Amino acid sequence: MKLVLSGIALAILSAVIILSEVIPYSYEVQAILLAAIGSIYIGFGLSDSHPHNLRLEVLVAALFFGIAIAGYWISPTITGMGFVLHGVWDFLHHPQVVKTAVPRWYPPFCAVYDWVLAACLFSSQIF
Predict the structure, then answer these.
(1) Distance between CA atoms of 76 and 61, rounded to whole angstroms?
(2) Do the Cβ atoms of 7 and 112 come closer than 8 Å?
(3) What pTM was computed for the model?
(4) pLDDT digits (tens, 9 = 90+) for 78-90
């Protein structure tokens, strides 16, 4: 439960910062954040002993990087959908549908973070 609450709190804090007037181009920050979050599993893939898992994580990270670029160039709505999809990717790591070795706590924490952040961004006037 602490993981879920931590993910919610961090997502809300991130949304407040991203959507504040302190950051005039929040769509850029959203795209950068999605690209960074999308690449985190590469690190887990590098620590995994199976090269197939690393290849899969690099491929999916490239997909999220592409979604982030599309969100930046076309519409922040695409970036928001990228966060939703990344939450699904996190969820697939939790029951080990995807076999990359990750810390047990990470997938549920990150999935909640992604989905709450996406909800905050979608509910803002940015989209």
Answers:
(1) 19
(2) yes
(3) 0.92
(4) 999 999 999 999 9
